[in-house]
Specification:
phosphoribosylformylglycinamidine synthase activity (chains A, B), about 80 residues, homodimer, about 35% strand, 3-stranded antiparallel sheet, Mth169, Chain: A, alpha+beta
């Protein structure tokens, strides 16, 4: 069993109103050190071994469903041998 | 300047309907290897150096605003010297 950790982030050039709102809240709470906040998604996908190379499968899943590649980037890392 | 990467995840015992929906979609797309999907938030916070220890500040921000510690856990890692 493998655990794939996927990070989906808005592309640099895309405005992030949710992040801006969180930044304002942090400033209002006196965390004035905060310069910028960007908010993305974090997915943990538990998978059985795949017939095709895992990288290929994960990339395809991200491109087809998990990320909107027009406005989002994704990265992932794989942890092997998860026992739950 | 420091970049803090914060991962907010639902606690193990908390149901994740969004994750379940994504799992169903992946199965419908024939990614039957997928066993489980959990969805969380990923935040990138760019910060100036803090007077107090950074760990203390980040933990406090998470507990007060970024995570709901009743149902969510958080982890973070710090990357130093970001130039943008």
């Amino acid at each position: 069993m493998m655990k794939v950790k996927i990070y989906v982030t808005l592309r640099e050039s895309v405005l992030d109103p949710q992040g801006t709102a969180v930044k304002s809240s942090l400033h209002a709470m006196n965390y004035t050190e905060v310069q910028d906040v960007r908010i993305g998604k974090y997915l943990e996908v538990t998978m059985e071994p795949t017939e095709r190379p895992l990288d290929e499968v994960v990339k395809e899943m991200c491109e087809k469903l998990l990320a909107n590649t027009v406005i989002e980037d994704f990265e992932y890392e794989v942890e092997e041998a998860v026992t739950r």
